Give the backbone structure.
Amino acid sequence: MNTYAIGDLQGCHDEFVDLLETLDFDPRRDRLWLAGDLVNRGPGSLACLREVKALGDAAVTVLGNHDLHLLAVARGGASLNRKDTLDAILAAPDREALLDWLQARPLLVRETLGYDTLMTHAGLLPQWSLDQAGGLAGEVEAMLGSERAGTFLERMYGNAPTLWRDDLDGIDRLRGIVNVFTRMRFIDAAGRLDFAAKEGLDSAPPGFAPWFQYPRADDARLLFGHWAALQGATPASRVNAQALDTGCVWGGKLTALHLESGERTSVPSRRR
């Protein structure tokens, strides 16, 4: 069995098919870990959702910020943005089945693959232990599976709080968890998030650094997407963090990391 972790698809369905063919992926034998953001910006968001859902137990995916945006538009009253490419999903005859499936995806997956391996969309706050992170992800997952999910999706957006506290409650607590798992890039030494800087490492605000440049108390392998400007690199990392997003939707590549060997395989984007 082979296990492959793949970065953000963002509607790059043709490249996803190319990559699976290059890997000789067989769902009867192999498994996929997908780092979230299956949809948006690229032309094949509907096809990506259908393809991954059809893989069943052969694929696990975490929720990314664009996946949550789709749910917020469809079920939380949010508005589409000018650059969104979600219309085909919203008009699809299997829309509700796809949204139900997506809404049931986790924020975090964790397994022992040689050693502790954890994947989220954006990363893991250094101040959180692995067990704590799993519990916090479960709080949001429980909310998304509850009758209050629509209300939560209506109130999910916002930058506050920027600093996690264990005594946060209500919407501030849930929003804080979502922002760490799906939006985090730069933080300060206390774990305060910055949401303005979205480019490469040289865009870090004063006093801030990438989350993976702060030490942790464990040696887990941390897999994440979300940050296309890194191009799959984690310079000066002080943890075992491996970036998966290589910017396919922006004209870069779609990349798979073979979790057993550490080998990377990429296919070029079909977009300029």
Summary: The first helix runs from residue 13 to 23. The mean pLDDT is 97.
